[in-house]
Inverse folding.
């Protein structure tokens, strides 16, 4: 099985990388299984199928592993977030439609998303009297075009005060080259604020996590810079 990153490997912006389609054709003709992995959670797998097609690349949704899909698959496997379960938990989403669509496809109950605009929190009194939804069992952070200080405060308060609330970070990148030389804040930009105020670290949906137990081959000492699969990756189907 051969894993391909997407941005910068198969395409740059709206342009296919030279000979990308031919490379995939040759690999498949030789019987190789090909999967496409991306920590970009701004699209669902269906959205990525459309993106691939627009660039002349034929790819099935089942061949795509995106951070949005990984987050949804993880929450679905916990069994705590079943849509329609009155006793179940819901995920608070600070992300766009790519994450929303994958959560819907996985049958995960969620609130928030792009359309959610909490009340303005202008004073310490506003923050101290903030009512929390006790159904929230996870906070999922992705590319959040509707980002606001109030959304960040609410999410961090949920993480700090709601017992067992999971913290899922779809993408830890803090900056994104959106068209040289322009650099914009990336989905990971709000994470330090949420992490520092809640004393929590988000579990990356696809990105490896540092591991003190990972060892170099043939060594009894931890490998410098070693990483292990994130909790989300380990629970994916």
């Amino acid at each position: 099985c051969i894993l391909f990153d997407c941005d910068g490997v198969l395409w740059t912006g709206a342009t296919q990388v030279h000979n990308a389609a031919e490379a995939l054709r040759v690999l498949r003709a030789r019987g190789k299984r090909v999967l496409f992995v991306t920590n970009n959670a701004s699209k669902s797998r269906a959205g990525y199928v459309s993106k691939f097609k627009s660039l002349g690349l034929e790819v099935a949704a089942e061949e795509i592993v995106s951070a949005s899909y990984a987050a949804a698959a993880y929450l679905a496997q916990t069994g705590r977030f079943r849509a329609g379960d009155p006793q179940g938990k819901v995920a608070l989403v600070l992300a766009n439609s790519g994450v929303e669509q994958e959560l819907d496809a996985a049958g995960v109950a969620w609130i928030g998303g792009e359309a959610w605009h909490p009340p303005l929190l202008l004073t310490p009194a506003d923050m101290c009297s903030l009512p929390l939804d006790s159904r929230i069992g996870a906070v999922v952070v992705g590319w959040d075009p509707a980002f606001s200080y109030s959304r960040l405060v609410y999410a961090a308060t949920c993480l700090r005060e709601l017992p067992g609330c999971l913290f899922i970070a779809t993408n830890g990148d803090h900056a994104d080259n959106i068209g040289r030389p322009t650099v914009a804040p990336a989905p990971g930009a709000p994470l330090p604020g949420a992490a520092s105020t809640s004393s929590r670290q988000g579990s990356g949906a696809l990105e490896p996590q540092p591991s003190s137990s990972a060892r170099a081959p043939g060594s009894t000492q931890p490998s410098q810079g070693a990483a292990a699969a994130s909790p989300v990756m380990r629970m994916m189907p």
